[in-house]
Specification:
Blueprint lengths: L1 E5 L5 E6 L5 E8 L13 H8 L9 H9 L4 E6 L4 E8 L3 H11 L7 H19 L2 H13 L13 H5 L3 H11 L5 E7 L3 H11 L19 E5 L6 E8 L8 H12 L5 H8 L4 E10 L4 E9 L4 H18 L2 H18 L3 H14 L6 H10 L2 H11 L5 E5 L8 H7 L8
Parallel strand pairs: 2-6, 7-11
Antiparallel strand pairs: 1-2, 3-5, 3-6, 4-5, 8-10, 8-11, 9-10
Helix pairs in contact: 1-7, 9-12, 9-15, 10-11, 11-15, 12-14
Length: about 425
């Protein structure tokens, strides 16, 4: 059973009890990410995530890691477009220890200037590592091209210049503005008792200031073209369109549309591009859903001499699916999506993450039966309608590797929208 309680401070506590396990996953989701950054703050949300583990008023960085590892636990964090998550995996008996550490790093981080400088170097190395991987460069560029000149489209890691400008004082200001009770959700899954968890969270996070989530500008899908044609051994190409927001009535249909097109080895794109023609070594279709916007996209990785033909096949398959996608194809996509939901329920960490996301996005736990029923209600006609609708939006195109600069003309001719300028 998943249960949720909202404290008087505005902080949300959600738990998913699993009686058959001896462990637990515990995390704190803060509704702030790269999208929350103001002008001049690019990369600061991710920088702050790194700094959370670099010491507090009462714990050094070393004591944090030693405390959790002394009981065989793990602790980590991640920054995304809209949230930053701090989470631990421990034995159930060590929940109070993990909660105390998470509360400490999220209420009294030290932001010591010498630690800021050390971590700056680590993040610059992380940026360099991402730059060395063509696929990472392509996926980092996708939101930048799809949401031009908006915070929601910024690269999560920041740039070398923006990371170089982050200061301890800037981190403190960002922390004070965004790390408030109303922006926090504590989620736990595994061997956990909800009432006890609520009491312990209320005590541990009593110092968190009350406050609502700062209002953000609405995301506006623009489409656009971004080409990075450096000489690499491979080519990465992504074609995107306007998708659906997480709470949109068609969000599930958009996910199923992506899975039907490129969600597995039996999907249209994998069969047409790799199995039948040998044009790519990897391809997929996916749908990213944010709070108020989304992106539907197709990705392929191939060699320079195969790009042109592979792109033509993608357009052919998208256009064909609008009219001919079958109930059998949708049934496979449904089965994949349902299996993903049900299999993930065997993992404490997955159930913790699901509970947190549901609390943030929908304001309540969503039973698995309800999610399965939503999937079952989507018809092949719904998926074809979604494919027809999204492909009429302004295209987004990202190219990384030694290929001609991409043109949206072929996409526009097929699906009927004006191309946006190259970034």
């Amino acid at each position: 059973m998943t249960r949720m309680t909202r404290l008087d401070s505005g902080l949300t506590v959600v738990s998913d009890e699993m009686e058959h396990v001896d462990s637990a996953a515990l995390g704190v989701w803060v509704e702030t990410g790269v999208r929350s950054e103001e002008e001049g703050e690019h990369g600061i949300a991710h920088f702050l995530e790194h700094m959370a583990f670099k010491g507090t008023a009462t714990r050094s960085a070393r004591s944090i890691s030693e405390a959790i590892e002394s009981v065989g636990g793990e602790i980590n964090a991640a920054t995304s477009v809209e949230t930053t998550a701090y989470h631990a995996r421990i034995l159930a008996e060590d929940m109070p220890l993990a909660l105390g550490i998470l509360a400490d790093i999220l209420t009294e981080p030290a932001f010591a200037p010498e630690e800021v400088e050390r971590e700056r170097n680590v993040i610059l190395q992380e940026i360099g590592s991402a730059e060395d991987v063509p696929e990472d460069r392509a996926f980092d560029a996708l939101p930048e091209a799809a949401f031009r000149d908006q915070a929601v489209g910024r690269r999560i890691l920041g740039t070398r210049d923006s990371v170089g400008a982050v200061s301890a004082e800037g981190l403190r200001r960002f922390f004070a503005r965004h790390y408030t009770a109303g922006a926090m959700t504590v989620a736990a899954a595994g061997k956990v008792e909800h009432e006890r968890l609520v009491e312990e969270v209320a005590a541990a996070f009593a110092r968190v200031p009350a406050g609502a989530i700062p209002e953000l500008a609405n995301a506006r899908y623009t489409g656009g073209i971004l080409a990075d044609t450096d000489d690499t051994a491979e080519c990465q190409w992504i074609l995107g369109f306007e998708g659906r927001a997480a709470r949109h009535d068609d969000a599930i249909a958009a996910h199923l549309a992506a899975m039907s097109m490129g969600g597995g080895l039996s999907s249209r794109l994998f069969q047409a591009l790799r199995e039948e023609r040998g044009l790519v070594y990897d391809t997929s279709a996916f749908h990213w859903a944010f709070a108020d916007a989304g992106v539907f996209a197709v990705h392929l990785a191939t060699s320079p001499d195969a790009v042109e033909e592979a792109v033509a096949v993608v357009l052919d398959e998208l256009e064909d699916a609008i009219g001919t996608l079958t109930e059998e194809e949708l049934a496979r996509a449904r089965a994949q999506m349902k299996a993903g939901i049900l299999m993930s329920r065997e993992s404490c960490s997955a159930r913790m993450s699901q509970a947190a996301r549901q609390a943030i996005v929908f304001g309540r736990p969503v039973p698995k039966e309800e999610r399965i029923a939503e999937i079952e209600r989507v018809s092949a006609d719904d998926v074809k309608r979604i494919l027809a609708d999204v492909t009429r939006s302004t295209p987004t195109m990202v190219a990384v590797g030694p290929m001609d600069a991409p043109s949206a003309d072929a996409v526009v001719r097929r699906f009927g929208r004006t191309a946006e300028p190259t970034l």
